[in-house]
Fold this sequence. Notes:
By secondary structure, the chain is α/β, with parallel strands linked by helices. 24% of the residues lie in helices and 32% in strands. It has five helices and 15 strands.
Amino acid sequence: MSRTLRIGIAQIPLVVGKKSENIRTILDAVDAAASEHCDIVLMPECSLSGWLSQNAATDAESVPGPSTSLIGDRCRQHDLAVVLGMEERLDRKVYNSAVFLDRRGVVRNVHRKINELEIGRALYSVGDRLSVIEFEGWLVGLDICADSWTAPIVDTLYLMGANVILSPCAWAIDPGGEDTNTAWIGENYRAHTVDKDLYILAANSVGELPTPHPWAGRILHGDSLAYGPGGHRIAHAPRSRPAILTVDLAI
């Protein structure tokens, strides 16, 4: 019997360093995805304070913690799951993490980014493990942005049984480079899925990175993507504007 799954890719505007504002945006996106009858909502990378925010250390939270509790309440209200990219504090370290909250708001998985860019290593500690969970007949793996650029991470999740990988992302580029960046990222996902029964879904945010951000002037350009078995692109969000991109998967 075919098992279907509807995922809402939340391509949301995130304001660097504005945690309270970003949490309101996250909750609004969950509400919007619920109206589209999504089973899972996928948020971008570092959704609390923004990727490479100077406030990462102060805005980071434990898991479970205040933000996962608040979003977990919304999971229960709407009967859906959320994958939240967030800044996590654990054992005096800050991680760039992805958290899977199920329909009851229970934390089922925490992935800590492994392939952190060099520029991010002053802020974020590096993760050291991968895991796959069962969700309603699906085996779900998590990675974060550049984790998908390295084949061993994707291949390991697939060998662990994953038939879908959900990836919070922050694709930051100089204005004018949107087409080139989207094509390069898409080719990575195509290469990972062309010979596998595997879906990869990625949520990017939208907005400009302001001073004093280390990449000030770059933009987060949207263009969130979904690829599936055979290397086919099955969904592509609009450029540089917010959207809830709904993607129906079947195995």
